Amino acid sequence: MQNLISQAHFFVLIIIFAISLFVLSKSSDKLVDNAVVLSSIWGMSKLIIGATVVSLGTTLPELLASVISAIKGNTGFAVGNAVGSIITNTSIVLGTAVLFGTVCIREDTKKKFNMLLFVCIVLIIPVIISKMGNENGTLIRPLGYIFLLMVPAYIIILIRQYKNNPFAFTFDTVFKKESDKTPKVSVTVIMIAFLALLVSISASGLVASSVEIASRLGVPDMVISSTLVAFGTSLPEFSTAISSVKKNYGDLCLGNILGANILNVILVLGASVIASSEAVIIPPSFYVVHIPILILILAVFGFRTYNKTSENITKKTGILLILIYAVYLFCNVKSIF
Questions:
Q1: Using CB atoms within 10 A as the burial measure, which of 15, 54, 93, 278 is most buried?
Q2: What does 228-260 look like in DSSP terms, one character per residue?
């Protein structure tokens, strides 16, 4: 595929990028749906399905794209996609959702934010320390293992939270598609295998076309992955967030966004670091653009989370988050020149 893409016309590359992004998003969504159906047929409770299949499935596009790029040696792409997705989810996705309805902050939301804050600190501090006295920073493999060890702990926490939240599954459209007719196990397994193949092919196409486009334009991989790719892989969260807010499930929308962000660090970034053949190089632009914007978004969201004057994220905060994303895009473009 790489040889084919390297020889393709630039316009063809754009088409491959767009199709790969679309197929990856749709096939990932359908894969999660079918995995949930199969889990239900096998008698798994919705509690377990929601905390594992659904929660992990929402990060599948980012996971596949980042891991494939890390294996191929494009570590800047992997880091940019993971961190860019966090910034995208918490700024433009959440900020836009707030404009369409009420997003309230509950106690379990505060707990998720605390977890997100913790994993971001675990990420940022070693990256800053590794930069001291060096041109580039690094993400070492042991940190990847630490992140992956956090995944089962996070799932256990999710299960406990779901037990105390009787409305946890009204947010998952998967469970609104139940019908009296139960599909055959063999058909569901074949569909899962086919969709998994689609996900793998589309993720490979997305990474290869993105890297080639970045190379021809003279743009760093991290810029493409943290903007175009991160926004594209966040489209499912975008549409789901707006839909849930309109249906008065704003708090659950917020919980899903925070959960996806946590998994982007501990699962996506953790797996990418381990998949890389060597230490992941963190370029200077990461320290100039990504870390400051990430800290700013966490500060804005943290202030709103622990502000006792209101339990809701105000529309002013939503507009502020959107403006921060605009600044983030501007800084990424400016870093090219």
A1: 93
A2: IIHHHHTHHHHHHHHHHHHTT-HHHHHHHHHHH
pTM (2 d.p.): 0.82
CB < 8 Å & 24+ apart, contacts of 238-242: 238/92, 238/93, 238/96, 240/173, 241/93, 241/94, 241/96, 241/97, 242/96, 242/97, 242/100
Contact 200, 29 (CB under 8 A): no
**Residue 283 belongs to domain with CATH number:** 1.20.1420.30
Domain that holds residue 158: 2-334
Looking at residue 176, what DSSP letter applies?
G
Tens-place pLDDT, residues 124-173: 999 999 988 888 889 889 999 999 999 999 888 877 776 666 455 444 44
Cβ burial, residue 25 (10 Å; 0-12/13-18/19+): buried
